[in-house]
Amino acid sequence: MKRPVLIDSSAWVEAGRPGGDPAITARLEGLIQVGLTAMTEPVWLELHQGARGKREEEQLARWRALSVWLSFDAACWQQAAKSARTCMRSGVNVPFADVLVDACARRYGVELLERDRHFAMIAHAIKG
């Protein structure tokens, strides 16, 4: 069985905007077609916060309905705390939301589709 791919808000936004990265758009469309997109609370919150109007809210509801839900549970919080501390000690300053999304992907052992340099910074800090 294929594992879902956690889609960060940066990839959803990139694929949804005119002139967005064609590689991200194609990958996301392919994942949607085979039902392998995943979402979690921090991503949903970021997307919902940025929605401008009823049409975008309806699009977000469709994306959520198409996605496997990865609940942000206690194990995610533990991973996020560990990652945030590692980043801080390494001098890496990344947004809290990105730490949460990265922690969720690590907790569930799924790939993360993103378009945000902060995830590479987190991975580099964790690898030491």
General description of the model:
With 128 residues, the chain is an alpha/beta fold. The protein has a single domain (5-127), classed as Rossmann fold, CATH 3.40.50. Helices cover 65% and strands 8% of the residues. It has 7 helices and 4 strands. The chain has a 4-stranded parallel β-sheet, sandwiched between helices. Helix 5 (74-89) packs across helix 6 (96-108). The longest helix has 16 residues, at 74-89. The protein starts with a strand and ends with a helix. The mean pLDDT is 95.
- What is the CATH H-level superfamily? 5'-nuclease
Helix content: 55-70%
Any idea of the CATH class? Alpha Beta
**Percentage of residues in DSSP E strands:** 5-15%
Oligomer: single chain
Alpha-beta content class = alpha/beta
Number of domains: 1
* Gyration radius, rounded: 15 Å
The biggest beta sheet, please? 4 strands, parallel
Helices and strands, with pairings:
Layout: E1 5-7, H1 9-16, H2 22-33, E2 37-39, H3 41-50, H4 54-66, E3 68-69, H5 74-89, H6 96-108, E4 112-113, H7 117-127
Parallel strand pairs: 1-2, 1-4, 2-3
Helix pairs in contact: 1-2, 5-6, 5-7
